[in-house]
Amino acid sequence: MAPGVTFFGDGPYYLLPPTQLDVTRFLQYTPLLKKVNSPEYYIDVKAIAINGKATDLKAGALDIDRLGHGGVKLSTIAPYTILRGDIYKSVISSFAKATNRIPRAKKVKPFELCIKTGAIGSTRTGLPVPQIDLELSNGKNWTIFGANSMKYVSDDVACLAFVNGGMKAERALVIGSHQMEDNFLLFDLGGSRLGFSSSLLFFRTTCGNFNFTTGV
Fold first, then answer.
1. Which among 209, 165, 198 has a CA at the least distance from the CA of 72?
2. What is the pLDDT of residues 115-142, one digit of tens each?
3. What is the pTM of this model?
4. Between β-strands 114-116 and 132-136, what pairing exists: parallel, antiparallel or unpaired?
5. Euclidean distance between CA atoms 213 and 6, whole angstroms
6. Cβ atoms within 10 Å of 52's Cβ, excluding its own
7. Residue 9: pLDDT band by 50, 70, 90 thresholds?
8. Quick one: pLDDT at residue 216?
């Protein structure tokens, strides 16, 4: 995992380069949900799109049900995003169709869809694969680019870094640490909202570039 930094208290939060880049300028916000008597945090995702096209999910597939099951949880413990079986099948199928012209490589556990990276090059935000959008209830999108959707397993092979949690998974979706890497997340507990940047690589910086010479 790449190095990062944790802040407590209000910003601004400066990253290098360039100097005086206050990352809060790039944040979008969405409600931060919390279950009673639980330390876990959730966000309200209504749909998942790949390359701008919605995946085929049943209505309410990502919601928390009346028994408290389901929902989209944030986790720094899970290394990769875990999807309940039905959601995983839809996402993997849509991503496979959107990347059908990219040569495939052999599967590497725990991943199912792997590609040969030499055929596609790279960009500032990682491999040039279709973006994945988590479409939120307030109309915002948390966009996942190649640096966070794909995981290199060798010099010339990368795999879609999403894991099948099975049909009995307690949560619909658990967003793992790989998908959060170099995404600035602001947990505003007082305001019950989550600020998120999507990939900081767009701004030629990372979460490891905190400017310790400038006060926050």
1. 165
2. 999 989 999 999 999 999 999 999 999 9
3. 0.89
4. unpaired
5. 16
6. 10
7. low
8. 46
In the chain, the amino acid numbered 189 is: L
HEC readout, the chain: CCCCCCCCCCCCCEECCCCCEEHHHHCEEEEEEECCCCCCEEECEEEEEECCEECCCCCCCCCECCCCCECEEECCCCCCEEECHHHHHHHHHHHHHHCCCCCEECCCCCCCCEEEHHHCCCECCECCCCCEEEEECCCCEEEECHHHHEEEEECCEEEECEEECCCCCCCCEEECHHHHCCEEEEEECCCCEEEEEEEHHHHCCCCCCECCCCCC
pLDDT, one tens digit per residue, over 47-56 is 999 999 999 9
Residue with tokens 């495939």: 104
Q: Which amino acid is at 176?
A: G
